[in-house]
Specification:
Blueprint: H1 9-13, H2 22-44, E1 46-49, E2 57-58, H3 60-71, H4 73-90, E3 106-109, H5 126-143, H6 153-176, H7 180-187, H8 192-225
Antiparallel strand pairs: 1-2, 1-3
Helix pairs in contact: 2-3, 2-4, 3-4, 3-5, 3-8, 4-5, 5-6, 6-7, 6-8
């Protein structure tokens, strides 16, 4: 069976083959999207609540950017849609809920599970979850064009992070009935340093993943050719 060209890291790790049936392709893609949705839910459980914002600092941004870069545009967005439906309908997949401005510090690391299950329009940070879908789609679009294998990886992740914040801040201002300036104070400025670190880590994760895949592929080709083989050896 002949493999098709790997457009994304997920395609390289779990390659399609030319004889795959449509149900097999759809099942594979759904499994990948669900896997990254669950990974995002796990990262949501790494949460730091600050005294000056109703929005916790979480690991979700890293998960969203890696999901988009690994899956591509449509599957990256699809994984975040699945994540959104999980948190609204199935289990407490979103980050731990907080009061509008808690006034205290709080650190939560995965266990005990303390997430939120609610409709995204019913809590202040719901707009960021819409931003997850847009960010994953944009990063996936760029990585399908090999930005994750070039120095442009950092820019792809930065653009994804920017897109993520737009609906997040707008909804925060609407939900809390505050000015846009105050929404920026609550929902952007406290997270700049942390998100720079997360997008930097994401921009390193994908090239390292590609390097590992290529190394294994090269080792496989060397093993298949054998110690005494040459390009002119019969197949």
């Amino acid at each position: 069976m002949q493999r098709t060209e790997a457009l994304t890291l997920a395609d390289a790790v779990f390659p399609r083959v030319s004889r795959d049936s449509l149900p097999a392709v759809l099942a594979r893609d759904f499994a990948l999207m669900t896997g990254f949705a669950l990974f995002t839910a796990l990262c949501a459980q790494i949460a730091i609540q600050t005294p000056w914002s109703p929005v916790p600092i979480t690991g979700q941004t890293f998960a969203v950017l890696v999901a988009g870069g690994s899956l591509g545009m449509w599957r990256g967005a699809g994984s975040m849609i699945i994540y959104t439906l999980m948190g609204m309908l199935i289990f407490s997949a979103f980050a731990p809920s907080t009061s509008p401005v808690s006034g205290t510090w709080d650190l939560h690391f995965i266990l005990p599970w303390s997430g939120t299950k609610d409709f995204i329009w019913d809590f202040p940070s719901g707009g960021y979850i819409v931003g997850f879908i847009l960010a994953a789609a944009l990063v996936g679009f760029l990585c399908e064009r090999q930005w994750d294998r070039k120095p442009w990886a950092h820019l792809a992740m930065f653009l994804g992070a920017v897109v993520l914040y737009i609906p997040g801040i707008l909804w925060l201002a609407h939900d809390l009935d505050i000015s846009l300036s105050t929404a920026l104070d609550y929902g952007l400025y406290p997270f700049v340093v942390g998100d720079m670190a997360k997008l930097g880590l994401a921009s390193l994760t994908l090239p390292v993943g590609w390097a590992i895949v290529k190394r294994f592929q090269q080792d496989g080709q060397d093993s298949a050719s054998g110690p005494g083989s040459s390009p002119t050896d019969p197949a």
